[in-house]
Structures are given as structure tokens and as C-alpha cells.
Amino acid sequence: MKPWDNIISEEEQRAYRAAGFGNPSGVGAHPALLVIDVQYRTVGTTPKSFWESIKEFPTSCGEVGWRAVQAIVPLLAEFRRRGWPVLYPHVAPKKSTDGGRLAEKIPAIMNIAEKGYEFVAEVAPREGDVLLPKKHPSAFFATPLVSHLIDLGVDTLVVTGCTTSGCVRGSVVDAFAYNFHVLVPSDCVYDRSATSHAVNLFDMASKYADVATAAEIMEKLRAIPDRPLAA
Amino acid sequence: MKPWDNIISEEEQRAYRAAGFGNPSGVGAHPALLVIDVQYRTVGTTPKSFWESIKEFPTSCGEVGWRAVQAIVPLLAEFRRRGWPVLYPHVAPKKSTDGGRLAEKIPAIMNIAEKGYEFVAEVAPREGDVLLPKKHPSAFFATPLVSHLIDLGVDTLVVTGCTTSGCVRGSVVDAFAYNFHVLVPSDCVYDRSATSHAVNLFDMASKYADVATAAEIMEKLRAIPDRPLAA
Amino acid sequence: MKPWDNIISEEEQRAYRAAGFGNPSGVGAHPALLVIDVQYRTVGTTPKSFWESIKEFPTSCGEVGWRAVQAIVPLLAEFRRRGWPVLYPHVAPKKSTDGGRLAEKIPAIMNIAEKGYEFVAEVAPREGDVLLPKKHPSAFFATPLVSHLIDLGVDTLVVTGCTTSGCVRGSVVDAFAYNFHVLVPSDCVYDRSATSHAVNLFDMASKYADVATAAEIMEKLRAIPDRPLAA
Amino acid sequence: MKPWDNIISEEEQRAYRAAGFGNPSGVGAHPALLVIDVQYRTVGTTPKSFWESIKEFPTSCGEVGWRAVQAIVPLLAEFRRRGWPVLYPHVAPKKSTDGGRLAEKIPAIMNIAEKGYEFVAEVAPREGDVLLPKKHPSAFFATPLVSHLIDLGVDTLVVTGCTTSGCVRGSVVDAFAYNFHVLVPSDCVYDRSATSHAVNLFDMASKYADVATAAEIMEKLRAIPDRPLAA
Asked: Would the pTM count as exceeding 0.90?
């Protein structure tokens, strides 16, 4: 059972398969984990329903976000254990000059309280992680992410965080275009719309990434041998 | 009635509005038209049902594509009449070195017959239009599109073509990140999945672009005064 | 007399002209000023000779930097008076994860004292200016500079700061590639090598930008009419 | 004896060393060769002096170009022997829409005869090489070069071709910013100005790349072990 099975009809799924979409792109030898926008502004400082949570931050996804955070915890621990890189693209506090089209389209996004920009403690960065403030949906757009990945010798990205239909989707499309292998653990990404979440997972699975549960993806990652130490 | 009203529930739409999404980003003074991937490979050489059409090209969307082509015709004519720029991002024939993740994810896309790469005659480019061969979903990725738009003094993009959930979506996200005003005429974009088409329109309308019918968008464009001639 | 006349021979200059290089690219209607890396790390906290100044910051250019700062002052004042945008690409304090090739090539650059990252007071940014921290030579690389310029409707860049052969050169090449009109006031850019400074000005004048004194460039800018207020 | 020793004074070189510039960035494990713009338009169809050669193509560098072509031959052969990737960024024939700032700055560049765009036979691409048409100085700007390099697992670039002060310099600065190890064989790059050639080599050696003769670079490359075959 895929997350989109109740929304994308069997006929539509058959059409995609008939046209040749949705093959696996597989896993490389050097993975990195992206934790995108897992800040209190996207889940609230405590788990609450969506409607309660947006009273604290209008950008919050509420409970679904906290469930995803719990699913990221063991995945992050596995990356720590293996010594694989973890990178944190995140939204920086907005300045008056940061408006542009964003301020027109979603004015509420310009006035989030400072606490909202803190990383959620359960999956927060530690010393040595790469922090990437960003101003646009994709973690690659106008950031040095690709330079870091080339420096680290990464060929595979596991993409977590939020929102599925926003910054996750935008980052996955760019990661695919840069020719990274992309894996999206469906239980580690979240969105304020269940429908949009599911359809974006379908779009990514069809064209850009391998979508599976965090448990399935960890299974695949376990098959990667340790990197030989540089001489 | 919006194209996504039967798929995104009223509760979900209310959630987006409550969180402050979906405001208009408006129209600038210098529009350009993008016609993305309107080649026979995406509609077939003649209008046929999806299932018949993919026998000719597996990448074809069939009849929905031909309906969109008909809707692009008057919009394109209006851009010609006003002397506004028209640009054609399009898929170039694949070479053996063009594989990467794309060849893994969608192998069928690597072997399209040459005729499939021709522009659909009804909306084909003419002398003086900018042609932009591309290898990745977004019309901006690894192409000189943004350099052309800066040279032309463009501040507003009307995005047409296909697929709604692929190259159109990717291009709209980048256009928004570059701070162009973005307009998506919902009847001028097409996709092989009606559900994904509708949800991608909803995503774009919520976060990145103003989505309306071609007729409504032409009405807005008519309000733009002619550009003064350079001295 | 051009800054490169004693270094690039008359024969070489004749060769460039014969091949058709060095024509003016002219001025547009909407200029912005870039002030690149004018921080104490590139001039020292007080004017001193190069050899004294590098004892404070190894990245300092010393006296030539202070002379350029003085030349930037009236140019900046003119931009303030006209209400034209001023943007500050600058080097952010280095973190342990920022090394890459830079830390190998120029290790000293990784350990500059915090004071070095402050803007030089004489030409420092004020509220409303765009601040662009960067990690690479070009002000465009991995920063949202081009998005800001599109949002501001800029078509012309006046590039000042340092070093002529480093971040100024890299930014000018990218600005040219993006199709902005580029003006380099030769007395407002500086470098630790007089030879490299002069030859980089020659390269830019031949291929990418119009190079002249700040006084000459201000004369050209005065011809630009005030921008009509948006309705 | 370095190529710049007669142009950059000993005092200036001492200043760069004192400030900590010019350390080696070294060689990685997976090299690729860039052959940039080695087309008849940059050397002429037969070796002639600069002044004779520009009568055929105003963009020709003449004899110095042919000497560099001879130096590229054994380097290219070594890359072929080892099975390492070779990529050809090159200038595509200009269309009327390709003007922009380039057409203003160097009008002669817009009207080169078709033969000028052919690759020089001695170092021409063969089946399986990546061909990258480009419109701007850097081989990375608005091309899929970085996507190809990520797909190929490349970490080191050897950059050859022309001109030293133009497309080579621009590509090297970007390659450095992307965190590739960059090697420039000084006898395999060429320019229409001997002074600018030498100073650009100095700039690159100081800040972005390791500059040495082709023979020295081949010696370093021989130390790289063969890549293990993928399982």
C-alpha cells in the first residue's frame, strides 16, 4: 500500500507504468541526509492539532509534523553511527529586503516569531553539521549545497523534513537534475495538506526519487560498505 | 470552480487560507510567454486517447495535450500582437551521455523517435523566438533562460505547456525563486494524470503563481500599457 | 591613460582592438551598486602599508584599499541621493565546515579575527540595503543576488570593492553572463598586486565591462532619468 | 621558472606568499579533462601568426593556440588510455537571439564562419565524450556540466583550451567554487595576449588551481590508482 493509493486512481497508476515511469534509481555508495526546515515554525513548540498549532505559527503543519520528527530520529541516529554527513537547509529569519514574490504570495510567512526559527531539539544539528540558510523553496537554490556535496563526495541524498509539496519537492527535483540518487522516506516528510502530501510523493516516485518508508530505506542503506579511510 | 475543487477537500483549502497562503502575486509591466515541451512527443502527431497515443510516443499525454494546444493558440497570438517575447524551452534529442538518473527512473524517455522532438505546428516558434534546449525538468536548470529574461527586461512569466507536474511545476518554482511574477493559465498546461494535474495547480496557486484560465489571464495582460520605445 | 598602459604593451592592445574587443556595453536605466568585501579584513582597521597591514589581517590589501574606500564614498552618496539600490556581498565568518578547496589553497583565510568581518564604517550598509553573505569568489555564486536584482528591476551594475583579481573579477564575469550592463570604476576596486589589478582591469574592459574612473561613471549615471513612481 | 616570473615582480610574489596564498590544492581520485573552445575559430584552420590568423577568424589566437593543441595531444591520450572522462565545452554558432551584452562588447564574435565552430581535428571529441555548447565564458554557466561531473563521480578537473583570460579563467573560478580540485597545465591553455595569459595563470595559481606543465601534471595523475570496477 503506497501513500497515494487512495488518491491517484488505479487507472492513473496503470497509465504511468504503461508509459514507463517509476523505475528505481537506486542507491549510490556515499549517502548524505538532508533535514529540511525542521524548525518550530513548521511543527509548533509542542504537538497540537493543525488548527491549534497555526495559532502559534501560521506556517505550522501541527501533529503530522511531530509524527515525522519521530520517524526522522532513528534515521538520523543511523547516519550519526555511520559517520555520514547530515546537512540542515533551513529558513533564516526574514529581513525587510527578503520579500519579493514570497511576501506577496504568503504574507504571513514574513512575521514568524524568533523562536520559530530554532531547530526542533529532537533532530537538531550538532557541531560539524552543515547549516544552510535559504530564502527559496529548493535547498539548492542560491545556497552552496551542491559545493558542500561535491566536497564531501556525496552521490546519494536522503531527503526529510517539510513541506512535502514545498521545499522537499523543490529540493528533490533539483537533486535529481544534479544527478544525485534521491531517496524520500515517506514517513519523514510532512505537509499541511494530506492530499497534496500524497500526490507529491506520487510525482516524486514516478519521476525523480525512490519513495519508501524510513525502515525500508534504512535496510537499503545498511548494504552500503563503510567508506575506506583516505590514505 | 477551481480545477482542484473535487480533489483538495474544502477543509484542506480552508487550512491553506487560514495559514495565509494563496494571495495573488500580480502582474508586472513586461511579460514573456514560456511554451514548454509542446513537441509531438508530448501530444502525439494526431489527437488520440492517452492509451492509443502512448503507442506512438510513451511520453505522450494524448487528447488533454491537444486541448491545451488549442488554448495556447489565442494566448500566443496576443503575445505576437503585442510584440512580447515568446521563449521555447524544449527537450532536445537524447544522446548516449545524457542518461544519468533520468535514464534509470524513466528509461522509455531515452528512445523517442526523431519526429517526437519537432514543435507542434499550431504553436511552433518563429524567427526571433528564443529556443532553449534543456535536459532537466526546470526550464531554468542549466540553461541561459534567466540571462535571456534579464536581457529582455522581463518581469512577468506566463507559463504554458507540459507536464503540469513535471517541467511546468519545476519551471514555476524556479521562476518564483528568481522573483518573476508567474501566471499559469490552467487550460494551457497538461499532464498524463488528471489528479496530479489538479493538485499541482493547487500547489502552484497556493505558493508560487497566480493560476487562472487563459481568458482571465489575457484580460489582466490587456491592462499592461505598451512599452515605450527605447530612445 | 588607462591603468594597464604600462603593463599591457601597445602591440597587445592593438591586437585586441584589431580582433574587435573592448567596445562599450553602455548603461541601462536602472542601476545598482555592489560594494564587495569592503570589510576591515581587506584594508585593516587603520590605513597602513601592505606589509604592516597583513600583520593585522593576512587578507588585507593595506593603503590601496583605503584609497579605494575614499573613492567609493561619493559614488555611494550619489546612489543614496538617487534612491538606487546598494547591495553588499561580503565574506561571512568561516565555520569549520566551510573549508573545501579554499582552506587548501589559502589556509590563512580560515582564521581571520572577528573584527575583520565588520564593514568599513565609511561605506557601511544602512537599513534597507541588501546584505549577501557569500563563501565563494563571485557575488552571484550560491547567493540570491540575481533574485534580488530581478525583484528590484535592475539592469546595470556598478561594481566596487575587492579584490580586483578575485571577487570583483568573478562577480563581473557572472554579471556579464547574466546580461547586466557592468561598469567598473577603476579607482574604487583594489588588490594586493598592482600588476594583477591592472591586467584584470584590462581583461574586464576588453570583454565584460566598461572600465572608467568613478568621476566618469558618475557623469554617465547622471544622464539616467529618475524612475517613474509605480502607480 | 614560472610563466609569470617576468611580469609579476618578485616583490609582488613575496607579498602573496606572505599573505598565505598559493598553496597546492592537490589531486583527487577521479579526474576528468575539460577541453574548452578548441575550435578552428580560436586557432585558425592552419597555424599562422596572430596578425595573419585574425584575417580568417577575428577570434583566433594564432600560433600560440597551435602550440597548446600539440601539448594537449599527449594529455588527452593519457585520459583515453586510463578511461577517464573527457568533456568538450564549446561555443555554438550564434543565433540572432544570442546577442545581449556579448554582442555589444565584442560585435565581431557574432559573425564567425561556420567552419570556425568545428573542433580542431588533433584533439577532437569522439563517440561517448560529453559535448557542452555554451553561450557564456564559464563552462559551468547555464550548462549541465556540474550534473555530468556528479553523474561521473569526478572530483578533479584538468582544464585546457582557451582563452586563458576568458573561458578558462571563468571555468576555473567556478570549478574551484564547486569544490573540485583544479589543475591547469600552463602549456595547454592559450590567449591572444602573452601578458594577460601569464597574469591569469598567476591569479589562478595563487587562489584557485594548481598550475604546472602538462608533463608535471601527467606525473601527478599517474599516481592515481585505477578505479575499481562497479560490482
From this structure: yes
